Amino acid sequence: MKAILYTTKYGATREYAEWLSAAAKIPSIDIKQDPDIARYDGLILGTPVFADHFRISKWMKTHWNTLKGKEIIIFSTGVKPNQGTIKEALPWVDKEISYHPLPGRVILEELRGIDWLIARIISIKDKSLVKDEVRQEHIKELIKAAKKL
Ligand SMILES: Cc1cc2nc3c(=O)[nH]c(=O)nc-3n(C[C@H](O)[C@H](O)[C@H](O)COP(=O)(O)O)c2cc1C
Q1: What string of DSSP letters covers 11-31?
Q2: Structural domain contains residue 68
Q3: What is the pTM assigned to this prediction?
Q4: Nearest-angstrom CA–CA distance, 26 and 70
């Protein structure tokens, strides 16, 4: 049995997870709901990237003993064009994981607290930070990979 487990702060990763869920017919669950990982043999994990850090990494580390025996695909949501590799993002992961970085969004009006402040400061110098590139068409390859999992 397969599942899409994701975390999100502003909704973009949830949007991708729900599109993927509808296309690949795999349930999507927010990790806040504390899903029973042991039930699944194939997992697609979705995470936003904040300050070059995968938001899901702490949860993955906590559950790594249960996760490592399973087939895993990771997708990330972020606005940087190059997200590097899984080895760089999760150096403690000791198995091959297929990785799909997806374009994200930053809308200043939606951000809260320190996120707004950081994005506001960066966006003064780098206008390319503020954008919305979340589109269903970006998950074509991910859908194929999820169906094969
Ligand atoms: C404070 C802040 C830091 C961010 N840092 C990164 C980053 O390091 N790399 C990146 O690709 N995107 C970065 N982003 C963009 C987010 O990853 C993007 O907004 C993403 O769509 C958020 O996903 P979510 O809506 O599922 O929370 C940052 C956004 C904010 C507000």
Answers
A1: SHHHHHHHHHHHHHT--EEEG
A2: yes
A3: 0.97
A4: 16
**Cβ neighbour number for residue 127 with a 10 Å cutoff:** 9
Residue nearest to atom 14 of ligand 1 (CA): 50
**Domain for residue 64, yes or no?**
yes
Tell me whether residue 85 is in a domain. yes
Task: Specify if 120 maps to a domain.
Answer: no
Which residues form the pocket of ligand 1, taking CB atoms under 6 Å from any ligand atom?
8-13, 48-52, 77-80, 104-106, 111, 115, 118-119
Ligand 1 centre to CA of 58 (Å) is: 17
The answer to whether 105 and 92 have CB atoms below 8 angstroms apart is no
On the question of pLDDT at 148 being above 90, the answer is yes
* Mean pLDDT confidence for 24-51: 97
Domain total of the chain: 1
- The CATH number of residue 79's host domain is 3.40.50.360
